[in-house]
Amino acid sequence: MKSLSSSAMLVELSISLWTARKLDRKVSNDVDISNSTRTKAGNYHKNLLAGDDSLSAIQKLAGVVRTYHTNITSPWNDSGQRLLPTAKFMEYKTEMARLEREYWDAVNTFLPLYNTKISASAFQLGALFNRDEYPEVEQVEKKFGFNVRYTPLPDSGDFRVDVGNEAMAELKDEYDKLYTSNLEKVTSDAWDRLNKILTQLSFGLRNEDGKKGKVYTSVLENAKELCGLLTYFNVSGDTELEAMRIKLEDTLFSLDANDFKESDFLRSEVKKEVDDMLSKWG
After folding, report:
1. Is the Cβ–Cβ distance between 50 and 124 less than 8 Å?
2. I want to staple 27 with a disulfide (CB 3.0 to 4.6 A). Which of 44, 93, 96, 182 is the partner?
3. Where are the domains of the chain?
4. pLDDT value for 182
5. For residue 37, what pLDDT is reported?
6. Which portions of the chain are predicted below pLDDT 50?
7. Would the pTM count as exceeding 0.70?
8. Integer Cα distance of 202 and 265 in angstroms
């Protein structure tokens, strides 16, 4: 079993924010009554800051952070911890620090204007406006949070606990099973990412009945970035995965989206290589 303790760590990202969504029970009941439903058919949630983009901008930024976190890490367990290669630690830490500053700048811009935004919402929401539904700014401030936690990754079998020998053997066996399962999860995620990017490339490279697909620069960049990440996410030492990674990297080396616009031959040859790799999945 491959040891990861010196080549990877666990990282957990936690972002919280105020959604400004509120269940309006009266409107929900009115909709049911007006439609003569025999049971409660649904709920109506209103946006307390309807018409204001500042909060949605914070929500979108949180989405960007989560996407970056997911892309550069790999699943490890069900509690939210993900595997981060040690080689990517400084890159990850630097980028997350930048994103955290951007997040708090947006939050600190939003909060001083909160009461003004409530007044604007009274106009936007009309009869749906209810001042009692708006928490005080101090309460709203507590809804926002940004935290990244790093945890060392123990080796399989490193189970230090003061129990009897028999119990320790059972605990070690259970941990070894979990450790193996998590390794398989990381490898499976690597294969899934490879399949997804190959599928996108194949679709973009299609040339059927004179109709060409479009190879987007973002897809090519994502494919090349994945080639680098797979070096670290192939934690089980899967030789077939490494061979596929090298083949994809060699196939796309020095190419950009314009190359496929200018050469049908290149488009055809690269698609053959991509489809050949995809054939692994049948």
Report:
1. yes
2. 44
3. 8-152, 165-281
4. 82
5. 66
6. 1-2, 158-163
7. yes
8. 15
